[in-house]
Each structure stands twice: as C-alpha cells, then as structure tokens.
C-alpha cells in the first residue's frame, strides 16, 4: 500500500476551474486500485501552528501499489483535462509514504 498526501495551492479566483478538474480526476482513482481517504479544505482557525502557507485543499489517497499510482497519473482521460489543473493550481506538494 502506498499513501499520497497532496497539499494544493490555487491561483486566486480559480477555484471553479480546479473543481472542474477534480470532478473528472477523482472518479478515475478507483480504476487504478486507489481510494480517496480524505479531501480536506482547512481554514485559518483550524491551523494551530505552521511555517508554510495554508493550502486550499489537502488530499490523502491510498493505492495498492506504486505502479497503480503511476498508471493513475498517466491515465489518458485525466491527461485530457490537465489544462484545468495547470490553469488553476499555483503550486502543490506531493508526499509519498507507507503505513508503519
């Protein structure tokens, strides 16, 4: 099992474009033995301490294997709509991990 945590920072005013991409990408996850465990939108009142900017969303996903995750990233349907992602996300941080 591989776990993916992604911190997503949006360009100002591009929330709807980002949501359009997510509406396409999220349903594709199970096709590659993946599960969206958490999709979280924090607020400044929920942050206790931090030294990085607050992300727009935090995603936690799991895939059965690294190969499954790689196949999800390369999915042809998802790739058709990467312009929506590229046009809305200012930056993102992807953290890979395993359960210990």
Overview of this protein structure:
- The chain is α+β, with helices and mostly antiparallel strands and 100 residues long.
- It has a single domain, classed as 2-Layer Sandwich (Alpha-Beta Plaits), CATH 3.30.70.100.
- The protein has helices spanning 15-25, 66-73, 76-80, 82-86, and strands at residues 2-10, 34-40, 57-63, 89-97.
- It has a 4-stranded antiparallel sheet with strand order 2-3-1-4.
- The longest helix is centred in the N-terminal third of the chain and has 11 residues, at 15-25.
- It is globular and about 35 Å long.
- 9% of the residues are buried.
- The mean pLDDT is 96.
Instruction: Output the radius of gyration.
Output: 14 Å
Q: Quick check: average pLDDT?
A: 96
Helix and strand composition category: alpha+beta
Tally of DSSP β-strands: 4
Can you write the helix and strand succession as a string?
Answer: EHEEHHHE
List the helices and strands and how they pair.
Blueprint: E1 2-10, H1 15-25, E2 34-40, E3 57-63, H2 66-73, H3 76-80, H4 82-86, E4 89-97
Antiparallel strand pairs: 1-3, 1-4, 2-3
Short description:
The protein is built from four helices and four strands.
Key traits:
four-stranded antiparallel beta sheet, 100 residues, single chain, alpha+beta, Alpha-Beta Plaits, 4 strands, globular
């Amino acid at each position: 099992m591989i776990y993916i945590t992604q911190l997503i920072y949006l360009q100002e005013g591009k929330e709807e474009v980002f949501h359009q991409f997510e509406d396409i990408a999220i349903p594709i996850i199970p096709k590659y033995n993946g599960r969206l465990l958490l999709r979280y939108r924090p607020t400044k009142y929920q942050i206790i301490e931090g030294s990085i900017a607050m992300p727009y969303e935090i995603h936690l996903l799991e895939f059965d294997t690294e190969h499954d995750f790689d196949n999800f990233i390369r999915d042809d349907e998802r790739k058709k709509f990467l312009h929506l992602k590229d046009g809305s996300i200012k930056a993102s941080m992807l953290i890979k991990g395993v359960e210990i």
